[in-house]
Amino acid sequence: KAGVTQTPRYLIKTRGQQVTLSCSPISGHRSVSWYQQTPGQGLQFLFEYFSETQRNKGNFPGRFSGRQFSNSRSEMNVSTLELGDSALYLCASSLRGPDTQYFGPGTRLTVL
Amino acid sequence: DQQVKQNSPSLSVQEGRISILNCDYTNSMFDYFLWYKKYPAEGPTFLISISSIKDKNEDGRFTVFLNKSAKHLSLHIVPSQPGDSAVYFCAAGVTGGGNKLTFGTGTQLKVEL
């Protein structure tokens, strides 16, 4: 069974631009969560989608948004990029609860 | 406000000995806890979990202990193996809160030969 895939794996953008990251969950998984990992901050929860609806949201500004499609694939968008948005963005899909949550390899975003 | 804290950024242990990784939390609403392991260039992988109704959960070489009164949990790895060298994250959640997890900042474990 294929794992969680994230595209692109690496991305370089400049301040003020916007970016869209994509996540394809494991087949049959309807929950997709997004996390931001920065040095010294651990993983910080961005949002969770379940059956195309946002089920949970973390404490991030409105520049961070997401959506989920009918095939459970998810995208997250960051507008007006700031230097502090440089991070590893991880996507996780789940069949049930968090102990069945599988993470993708992440997208490394660098903002210059 | 860091609700889940891992105060040791790194830990070095000899192969065959016990590794003890610690985690503290402040939010009393958390009622389940998980440990994840992360290798470089990979996403975290689930290791073991514990519900707040238990104080211990064991899976092979891995045991998690929960002390609710102290708001403290620990992961014991016995015996430690070189392949255990990775970053370990503890995470906490609230039942009914979906898959929203609050993670600690991680502890880099190095198991030396």
Structure summary:
The complex is a heterodimer of chains A (112) and B (113). Chain A is mainly beta.
Description of the structure:
The complex is a heterodimer of chains A (112) and B (113). Chain A is mainly β and 112 residues long. Chain A is built from no helices and 11 strands. In chain A, the strands form 2 sheets. In chain A, strands 2, 4, 5, 6, 9, 10 and 11 form a 7-stranded mixed sheet that branches. In chain A, strands 1-3-8-7 form a 4-stranded antiparallel sheet, with no helix packed on it. In chain A, a hairpin with a 3-residue loop joins strand 4 and strand 5. Chain B is mainly beta. Chain B is built from no helices and 11 strands. In chain B, a hairpin with an 8-residue loop joins strand 9 and strand 10.
List the main descriptive attributes of the protein structure presented here.
heterodimer; A: 112 residues; mainly beta; seven-stranded mixed β-sheet; four-stranded antiparallel β-sheet; 11 strands; 54% strand; B: 113 residues; six-stranded mixed β-sheet; five-stranded antiparallel β-sheet
